[in-house]
Amino acid sequence: MESSPHWITLKGMIHSIIYMLKRLPFRMHMLGEKHRKVREEVLRRVKPTPEEDRRIEEVVQELMERIERAKELLQLPWEIRAELVGSIAKGTHLKDPDIDIFLLFPRGVGVETLHTVGLKLCLEVLPQGQKLYTQHPYIHGEFMGFEVDLVPCFEMKKGEEIGSMVDRTPLHTRFVKEHLDESGKDEVRLLKAFLKGIKAYGAEEAVKGMSGYLAELFIIKFSNFEKTLQELSRIRPHTKLTLGGREAAVAVRRKYTDDDPLIFIDPVDPSRNVASALSAENLLYVKKAACCYLRAPSLSFFFPRRISEIDGAKDIVWEKVQAILGSGGGILLLTVDLPPVQADIYTSQTRRFLKRAVETFEREGFRKIKSGFYIYSPPRVGPFPAPRIKEHIESERVELVMLFIFPQYRKGERKLHLGPPVHVKARAEDFRRKWEGREEALSRIFIRDGRLALYIRRRIREPHQMLPVVLKALPSHLKKAYESRITISVNRGIDIERYWEALYLALSGRELWELDEDTG
């Protein structure tokens, strides 16, 4: 008796399931082994050696002694305490860390005094330092081969009303030191290295990624790097996280709206969202990276290849550009040359400009536009996908590079212009009076889907003709910065030899960690 086809199918399915279940432990073992090897190699590369840590301790000690001597020299009437903060103090630092020392003034000192006296004290320690500003002014400089920030702030205690994010930082340091064990420090290093590798590390406006403190809170909450990535791989927009218990979670849901893409309540100051700087775009980008890493762990997530190291990448760019131009498509490239400080300030605004430009092009009928925003930091270092670039801005000038790729670059002479519904008599009559006999009219008025219509001469046939309209809508300070520094290149006028790496990123559609894959 022959077996039923249904039975054969069911039997085959059962065998397949049994086979997969038998193989599952082996696959999980192999994946776990790969995770382990990647972890070990990443930590070998990013974790400071004992000798490097001793060197850091020596430099910190020398700075602390300089601060004490400066306090004696200035004979200040207050008790000012120097405190090492940041990743070095917490033990979560990577190689070549910045040194952050806060000078804690008593609360009774006025803000103006804090600024003037605090900066004077800082400059006594770092005479060649540069004055910078966040919510308080501070001094940034180089000392014995390390980047150093000396920051005057008010001394705060937990539970006190906190004046600014700067004042809160020492409390963050103390909290992490109390709640993160030794094994957790390496887990933080792995998470930081991952975020750095995918260029999503940093809470500043130019990056809109995850801060070091947020990375530390993730590890405190989820215990290790892999579990944190598992949570990030399934995270949803507007997720609310807290280190408190059930009551704290309920309170958070009541208090916080869905304005921020991710909410992680600061355990030091419950009124603050530690993840407030993270953009919705970057949350989804990190989620994608976490999913990809968990499926196939690789060092490329931590140390992506430079495009210039990929065999044949430049040839691929030339081929793709010729194919686009040969099929009637086109490429528009804008560059803005700026000093690094302005580049940092204008990065987020340039991102908005890019979005506005695409919307303007689409309103004129240009569709399926690919766009990209990159930063070059000469001499020829880059490109780095913005907004994930801040750590690379080190030269005297940088270029903001905006790319638009169009499947159709030149529109036909005429376009359809729709008027009012035929049954709206007054408006229909106005439409006829306006268009009959006009030079721009290329056809007689006809009816299309119940509306009056005609073909008119297209005023704008190529995207670059719309740029004056887009630039005109910019904020005045950005328009002023752009007007004298913007360069527009179109199609064969683009210097492909100069910008081929940015073109590769835009045309390939690959993420940074995918650059190790075959380029064919």
Give the helix proportion (percent range).
40-55%
Structural class: alpha+beta
Count up the domains.
Answer: 4
The whole-angstrom Rg is 29 Å
Number of strands: 15
CATH C-level class of the largest domain: Alpha Beta
Content of β-strand: 15-25%
CATH homologous superfamily label of the largest domain: Poly(A) polymerase predicted RNA binding domain
N- to C-terminal distance: 53 Å
Can you give a write-up of this model?
Mean pLDDT is 84; it is low at 1-8 and 379-395. By secondary structure, this protein is of the alpha+beta class. The chain has helices at 5-46, 50-74, 86-90, 111-125, 165-179, 182-197, 212-222, 225-233, 246-255, 280-295, 313-326, 340-363, 425-435, 467-472, 476-483, 496-508; strands at residues 81-85, 99-105, 130-133, 137-143, 146-154, 239-241, 262-264, 330-338, 370-377, 381-385, 398-406, 414-421, 446-448, 451-457, 486-490. Helix 9 (246-255) links the parallel strand 6 (239-241) and strand 7 (262-264). The chain is built from 16 helices and 15 strands.
Structure keywords:
single chain, Beta Polymerase, domain 2, 5-stranded mixed beta sheet, 16 helices, 520 residues, 18% strand, Poly(a)-polymerase, middle domain, disordered N terminus, 46% helix, alpha+beta, Alpha-Beta Plaits
